[in-house]
From TrEMBL:
MF GO annotations: aspartic-type endopeptidase activity; methyltransferase activity
Protein's recorded name: Prepilin leader peptidase/N-methyltransferase
GO annotation terms (biological process): methylation; signal peptide processing
Recorded family membership: Belongs to the peptidase A24 family.
Catalytic activity: Typically cleaves a -Gly-|-Phe- bond to release an N-terminal, basic peptide of 5-8 residues from type IV prepilin, and then N-methylates the new N-terminal amino group, the methyl donor being S-adenosyl-L-methionine
Spans through the membrane: 12-30, 137-153, 168-186, 193-209, 229-254, 275-304
Entry function: Plays an essential role in type IV pili and type II pseudopili formation by proteolytically removing the leader sequence from substrate proteins and subsequently monomethylating the alpha-amino group of the newly exposed N-terminal phenylalanine.
High-level lineage: Bacteria, Pseudomonadati, Pseudomonadota, Betaproteobacteria, Burkholderiales
Bilayer topology term: Multi-pass membrane protein
Amino acid sequence: MLGITAPDAGFVGAFALLGLLIGSFLNVLVHRLPRMMERQWRAEVATAIPADSQPLTPSRPHEPALSLLSPRSHCPHCGHVLRWHENIPLLSYLVLRGRCSACHGAIGARYPLVELGTALLFAWCAARAGSTQLPTALAWCGFCAVLLALALIDRDTTLLPDSLTQPLLWAGLGGAALGWTGTALVDAFWGAAIGYLSLWLLATSFHWATGREGMGHGDFKLLAALGAWLGWAALPPLLLLASSLGALVGLVLLGRQRRASARATDEEPEKEAPLYIPFGPFLAFAGLALLALGHGVFFAALGLNLGDFGPVLK
């Protein structure tokens, strides 16, 4: 475990600025990565399946190249390419008052919130690790950034890309081996194994009992990654917290859906669509909560005393 060190103001400030920059990149990542995956899928379908047997998907023969670096950031309304002074994290949004300088279309508040949230997470990790523990601070900043990206992508698309979950898993094991995460390697290994198998068994049992898919494989990999970073002892409270939050949100959304159905007229009844709530955002939030508070807080809330399970990053 890490000893608590007095945070250095310059060190923490530098990480906050780094967080603003990474937060700006996360906005690009969250928006573009699912679209890049869709394009790759369509290309694989076009290569593997004869044209007359391909599923009916929209034809997009003149799509511009898309990557995390190209094209440059632009207004989603009018296509105006952002100049450098219009793309300064957080500051540009405030100066432009949340509107495009060309068409004056509204810019979503999520962009600056992601940048600010990432900056706060980075500053917190730097303060907790201390200026003498640069690798540890960088490791946990990376953990927080990837978790935030996964939560947003899953919320938007119900996808947890392997290109993020698998590197997060291996980085957790590697960080434990190097002593950067404060989690023993054996705890990280068992955390990854138990994390994956626990959700796999749960999803398999649900599918066997109902014939329906209740959880995606991305959730298995995300919990395995969380186990690798936080250790096996974090998994019970993590799952309890994530499941409780998911159930609470599910009840609220179900209530709204039922009220909307009740307001539908007899002539035009509203068909009640199946309610699907991605689990990834709740796993990510629970992982951050366990990082900050430690396992012991949740065990104590249940009246259990299972030893010294404080915050991993301290």
